[in-house]
């Protein structure tokens, strides 16, 4: 975050325009700690965190959740399975030296598998939401209703528009 603020300050000086710093993290505990004020019940807290809290509170930094599955920062910081490492390398735009002539990207197959997996999980979520809504409507007595469409006619002379509507 410190490096990002430095780069943004330099860019604002050169460009003369306001730039927003968005900090992505896959750690929900870090996001929660940065979003509140003070140490609370946390023990052995570094003073840097209080500075980060002030930056977030002053809206100089915007915190955003990033799913762990697509966190490119994991490439050099963790032991990753070959498939996940290939996918993350593909997302960062790396091209294998073996395939320079063809321009084939590293982990193309893994990227396609990840896209399919993501699409499948979104469909499953939609199905789950639809089932939940259906179950709630049945529990509330709002089950399926059959309605017949009828052609409306003009109200008779003795009927008000309100009575005709009902």
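^ Assign residues to that structure.
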């Amino acid at each position: 975050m410190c490096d990002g603020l430095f780069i943004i300050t330099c860019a604002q000086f050169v460009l003369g325009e306001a730039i927003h710093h968005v900090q992505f993290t896959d750690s929900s505990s870090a996001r929660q700690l940065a979003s509140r004020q003070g140490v609370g019940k946390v023990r052995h807290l570094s003073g840097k965190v209080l500075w980060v809290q002030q930056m977030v509170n002053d809206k100089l930094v915007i915190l955003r959740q990033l799913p762990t599955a697509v966190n490119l920062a994991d490439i050099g910081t963790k032991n990753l399975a070959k498939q996940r490492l290939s996918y993350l390398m593909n997302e960062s735009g790396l091209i294998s030296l073996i395939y320079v002539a063809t321009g084939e990207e590293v982990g193309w197959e893994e990227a396609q598998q990840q896209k399919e997996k993501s699409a499948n999980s979104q469909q499953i979520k939609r199905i789950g939401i639809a089932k939940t809504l259906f179950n709630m409507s049945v529990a509330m007595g709002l089950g399926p209703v059959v309605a017949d469409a009828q052609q409306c006619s003009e109200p008779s002379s003795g009927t008000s528009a309100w009575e005709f509507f009902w």
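DSSP finds six helices and two strands in the chain.
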